[in-house]
Amino acid sequence: MIKMSKAIKLSLTLLCVASMSGCYAQAGDTTAPSLQTELPVSEAGLTQVDLSICTSDATHHFIVEVAENRAQQAQGLMFRTQLAPDKGMIFPFPEDRVASFWMKNTVIPLDIIFVRRDGTIESIAANTIPYSLAPVRSNEPIATVLEIAAGRAAELGIEPGDAVFWR
Fold it and tell me: Could you tell me the pTM of the whole model?
């Protein structure tokens, strides 16, 4: 694989964003007007939204539950026994912060993706260990955390610097 500088990676991501449906070139715009279909609430009673991740060569679509408040964020995906490959959960924060998650009572392994306020991926904690009490942290203040099924980020070529958009 070719190593790219952060600036080149961001430029390629923005080019992808500008050229693919569901993604937009303006940094920080986490909305996707083409994805405005109202989704039913999840089985857990959470709001669901469409989410896209633009890599350097593709756009990947997910339907994610939104953990909107502290109680929902504390619960997260704990006690779930499965997560479809195109599903996930987002944890938006009102203010940027260094995020720390653990896998206590989380039955399934996850990829935990830390997203900056501008929508770019800061880092990815891949294949987290179920039931682990070890903290999984972002490296810098972030705005949102995205959890998807373990291994999906690598499978889809999702990397730091890629762009995440949701309604």
Answer: 0.81
